[in-house]
Amino acid sequence: MANKVIITCAITGGIHTPTLSDALPYKPADLASQAIEAAEAGAAILHIHARDPETGAPTGSPDVYRQFLPIIKQGTDAVINLTTGGSPDMTPEDRLAGALTFSPEMCSLNMGSMNFSFHDMGRKVKEWKFAWEDQYILDSEKFIFRNTFADIRRNYELLSDHGTRFEHECYDIGHLYNLAYFVDKGVAKPPFFIQSIFGILGGIGGDLDNVMFMKRTADRLFGKDYVWSVLGAGKYQMPVCTMAAQLGGNVRVGLEDSLFIGRGKLASSNAEQVRKIVRIIGEMGLEPATADEARQMLALKGADRTQI
Amino acid sequence: MANKVIITCAITGGIHTPTLSDALPYKPADLASQAIEAAEAGAAILHIHARDPETGAPTGSPDVYRQFLPIIKQGTDAVINLTTGGSPDMTPEDRLAGALTFSPEMCSLNMGSMNFSFHDMGRKVKEWKFAWEDQYILDSEKFIFRNTFADIRRNYELLSDHGTRFEHECYDIGHLYNLAYFVDKGVAKPPFFIQSIFGILGGIGGDLDNVMFMKRTADRLFGKDYVWSVLGAGKYQMPVCTMAAQLGGNVRVGLEDSLFIGRGKLASSNAEQVRKIVRIIGEMGLEPATADEARQMLALKGADRTQI
Amino acid sequence: MANKVIITCAITGGIHTPTLSDALPYKPADLASQAIEAAEAGAAILHIHARDPETGAPTGSPDVYRQFLPIIKQGTDAVINLTTGGSPDMTPEDRLAGALTFSPEMCSLNMGSMNFSFHDMGRKVKEWKFAWEDQYILDSEKFIFRNTFADIRRNYELLSDHGTRFEHECYDIGHLYNLAYFVDKGVAKPPFFIQSIFGILGGIGGDLDNVMFMKRTADRLFGKDYVWSVLGAGKYQMPVCTMAAQLGGNVRVGLEDSLFIGRGKLASSNAEQVRKIVRIIGEMGLEPATADEARQMLALKGADRTQI
Amino acid sequence: MANKVIITCAITGGIHTPTLSDALPYKPADLASQAIEAAEAGAAILHIHARDPETGAPTGSPDVYRQFLPIIKQGTDAVINLTTGGSPDMTPEDRLAGALTFSPEMCSLNMGSMNFSFHDMGRKVKEWKFAWEDQYILDSEKFIFRNTFADIRRNYELLSDHGTRFEHECYDIGHLYNLAYFVDKGVAKPPFFIQSIFGILGGIGGDLDNVMFMKRTADRLFGKDYVWSVLGAGKYQMPVCTMAAQLGGNVRVGLEDSLFIGRGKLASSNAEQVRKIVRIIGEMGLEPATADEARQMLALKGADRTQI
Ligand SMILES: [Zn+2]
Ligand SMILES: [Zn+2]
Ligand SMILES: [Zn+2]
Ligand SMILES: [Zn+2]
């Protein structure tokens, strides 16, 4: 499968707010239909967050997940990957509730604590759709995305019984070393799926030199035991993905990571971004991996062994 | 001053505990004498933390600082640089108290939140000198070193009236981007003194490839507006410093960063580490900068304008 | 012109032989029509070699150039760039004859001596179209591409009266240092157009890490005084160009550099490769520079001041 | 032998001329005594060229070698490594004569053709000791150091019967790819001893970024099958060696590579440079490998199986 690229699509996330793009889905039906359309366009993995169906505010409530996860499962065989990153307002327990309830094939696992800030993101907005959005964005100046060594260890432990495997989100070089610590301790098991993230304020920047250095460091620390994927925030989305694909890596797109499809142009849907990266890798002679190819590359347990 | 290297010596820090090395100073007289001896050996800057005179536990109390800072000032003209990093038990206010009280020429400023863990450090210890040490070390598995964007902004604001300049402590590549954010906002003023830190669990590792990449990234982000220094934790101390010196950078040594002078061999004092790095840079044709040369390179206000 | 990419198309070169691809032009009419079509597809610069009209063997004869250069000039306003690299059989004088005769806007200038070998290239060929081809390829095991410091200096001198500017062909990191030597001596004048070449046996390989390192080294040596372009030989053509375009560089394609359009698939024409790279950079939000934009970026004298 | 560093000392070479330093040995007795002294100082390998006993001009004559090689062999058990690089005036046959005659444990093997120029080296000289020196230096502007693929293949073939192993001299990144070509063909046998050379005009420069990149590329191409050593020309000698030692590499010093011991200060002997690098690596906790340790690391046949 040397010429196959696993495309993950992150449908909505917990950062962008509804006012920033009309395309950002938060109603269960929209989340499901955009997810299914993204899978049809070439995404093998769907990275999923829940949103309050009325206000679009991030939530980790299993009751909300239940309103759309089964629809997605019925509509596509793509791998469902639930966040454990959540959003600034959630406790560690809130963040894990979805994964513990639905026992998905994959969930995200954030490999370190960090500032995660987007307080300048709403500057140009004149009128907000919902009351919570403005302060939510401003408060991120004070936000620490909490993922202590004790937290990470606990997540590995709690989810190991579920056979759920991890999208190890690494926002900086040090996060690779944190993962190496857990590999050393025998807690993390190969193949490690590493999602390197570029361009978040608080993490490593989106410059392409960083993309290459991240891979080189992962090569040094993990040899052939890892499967590499990347995402770039905002304007870095396509450059970072293009570069990683050239280096033999996999890619993540989706409205969680960027609301845009080109300079100053909002994407109309998650699928539009998937189609764009499919075209780009196609020019390189590469093809999207199917969901089952992704399952094989990442040693996943299969959709039938989840509680969705 | 092309062949001058600013040597900072970090006398005791807030991480190592008294049981780990008899040489680690915590009594005011010992802190002062080791600091002065380090300066005589070639350190131009003394990076200072306070310790409880009885138990050796980290403290930020101005009353404790007052027991030894004047002795240091009287004994040497080296630049006094007070920590604002403190230790896991301190609040943001505790951490700033020393700098606000003494208005030093420099203080440290940590450029991001992160895990900062050393929970495996006491494994080999059979008997502890003080009751607090064991749990203090174990608890670091849960520790987040808090430095949000709002915190950092506040520190710049509070200290700008003092004319105190900053040792910008950067534990990962992202921290350089955080500094770039404050440069962009006009809050940070050149020349930026950047202390890149390698080998702390939670931050970027101590491998030499990282040292070069850190410099390259700083070059890209700050051009000629910064003065670079490095420290390596534990066994990385001398390799990281040697390499940075070769690249035109400055160095930090001291018992805060490593308790050792060679493989498995404890250092007998801070000055012993200073003397070692002085010999190494000497082989390269480099010399330690004097305190006044350091003041000029870093645009410091001068010892007479502090409240020590 | 931040989002403009100068596309150079190298129509036929002096390495590939007619048997290797039916699309490789060597008759004057074919050279002209493929060049014009490449320009129409988006190439701003046409890098030109001559071939014997009967046998397709490389030649530097002005008489042969005269059979198609005027046709190209009449058919397109693209910049005409004549090789001075020639082929293994030519003397230094042969190699310069075209440039001295036609005084083009640009000519190539190879920045160092090196092995330049392709002796394994004909292994799969059963029957050769022309008698010279087989031995020509095998002999390259013994070939040294001669470009001594004295030769390079002489080329600068001979062509400076013509106002012809240079495509500085750099096949390895050392060639950048060679150029830096001539910059230091005041012989080379900015803006330097640097063509970095990857994947020739004898030069630096086509791995993408090399592309980034080449740029980093050029940045260090030449700062803002250079305009960067790349070419990748054979299978490296599109990956190398894609990566450089992402890094803000310019690109060269064409049948001189690769006979292929995809894995194992021969290109049907030079223009087909131009169209492919135009699509790729288009996905990045970039556009081909026009010939006049290229002239401006490279400080060229203009087509009307040549002897074509 | 993780903390052992193989020190090679290159006693006289074929580039520097007698006028440039009184310490440069060319009389048989001086060559022998400096070589033995260098070995006593810590060199495990002696890289040897011959010089005309009267004029100091480079020679490849076995008759000249015979005047001092046996003395060296008797005086030290260090590995004797004969050049096949020779000097600009020698034919390929001249260059091989010594190795074919004496069947040494090692000989050098230059991995590519290149410009190798030092024509500015004599600018400050007012009076030359010997008539040949001035023109010899000036002529290097026209010099190509010839090592075609066919030449290299022939050297492997001619010397394979002798059990002589190679110091693969790589002056640029492409030379590593050339070696990889011969590895691929099954001609070169591991462990490959790679001597990376920095700072020769015509090859890769002496900047430390290049040293790290050279190692990274070798790691990628040869994995664990190679033993790495470096040399830096002139002022780059000690920085390049220091850096490589930190990266786990081995080092070459000696008057062939640099006539200096510090900024503007001529070395008084080869041994003085050996002693300096021994001190530097000592500060890193590293020790010089003995000759027998070097033999084991490089799989050499032993001094008793040579014709010296
Ligand atoms: Zn997410
Ligand atoms: Zn500190
Ligand atoms: Zn050409
Ligand atoms: Zn030699």
From TrEMBL, chains A, B, C, D:
Keywords: Metal-binding, Transferase, Zinc. GO terms for molecular function: 3-keto-5-aminohexanoate cleavage activity; metal ion binding. Its cofactor is Zn(2+). Transmembrane segments: none annotated. It comes from the Bacteria. The keyword Metal-binding applies. Pfam families: BKACE (PF05853). InterPro entries: Aldolase_TIM (IPR013785), BKACE (IPR008567). Gene3D superfamilies: Aldolase class I. This is 3-keto-5-aminohexanoate cleavage protein. The lineage of its organism: Bacteria, Pseudomonadati, Pseudomonadota, Alphaproteobacteria, Sphingomonadales.
